[in-house]
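User: Could you check the structure of this?
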Amino acid sequence: MSVSPRQDGEFTRRSVLGAGLALGTGLTVGSGLLRATPAAATNGIGQTGAPLCQQPGDSAGRQGLGSGDLCIPYYREHDKTWGYVFGDSNDTSNTYIGSPVMLNQATFDRSGATPIAFTYAMPNGTADQLFNYTHGVDNGYGQESTRIPNDCIEFGGRTYLQYTSVHNGIGSSDLPPGEDGSLMSGVAYSDDFGATWTDYPYHWDGQYRGVNQSMYGMWSFAGIDPDGWLYIFSKRWNGSHKNTADQGAIQLFRINPDEFRAGNFGAQQNWTYNGSWYWATDGTPPTPLFAPGNNIGEFSVKRIDNTYCMSYLDLVDGSISTRTAARPDAAWSAPTPQIVANTSWPPNHWLRPQLDSPYGGYIHPGSASATSLTLIVSQWTQQGAYRVLQYDGIKP
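Assistant: Sure, the predicted structure tokens are below.
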């Protein structure tokens, strides 16, 4: 029997950041402070909280998806369209579909004047699970609850999707601090642009295969730089956001795209510090880019124009925050809160869009510029389902 991890995570996702204000439009006043609340913007100024699913008659529903989270965007270079990869999803009848699930879009309006509208679903025109595996059973690696997508990229005629296989239900309220709940992580590829998928034989072990809190649990493909390297950032996967070791540690490695295509992952070079920063070619592990600090959840790194932009869920600050760098291996700026959820309201949260129970926060690779990003943010709603919202004009 398939298990819907959406139900497993209901209370944890809502309680992680505390209660927030109800969605609405304009500005509201609370606790003596002026607070911005998200609303679908008009007059071409960009979307500031436009819901992309879970709305009657919306474009996701027309493709068979009623509710889902993550909605990780990537560029489909073979036909110049866009793909969006969802996590655990339900259809329009609220029946569990699976994970991962993909919707496509013919044309993205990078100005933000109109919200994202989905025009096709993979693998065959109706939203359905991409990978061939069964939930709640052993598919050859140990018992799996679900496979959660972390990022997707297409280059050289092949599509790559990195995922985490979860043993315990995502966000399970009984997952102790210090345990990440993962079984393994892996990379699947598709040579027909998302219709069928094959797993690379190598997998990175997770907690239930003997490596708790692996720094290779969750990846973000920053893209192929003009220098020819594919740059990849990674961190621990953290289903419950209670992982005591997950304190902002994000690491960087790079690999030749041809080696990556061949599945020769041992050819990676690691960005490492030993008195000074250097690219290690001898297997020395990468060094975390930032000092331990705030708990970091889902994250995203993309090269927009000539700037590397990073976004992530900051559990301590209670925000989706951003950073920038001139190069993936250069110094990163201090974090800037963008969409906020907590109730303490420090000055750097004033007038920021506020959203109850946000997570994710994925940078759209088609963003207007490095100073005007589109972010796709997930939310656990008070109605009891996942959904995603679009924010444009984000200045990191």
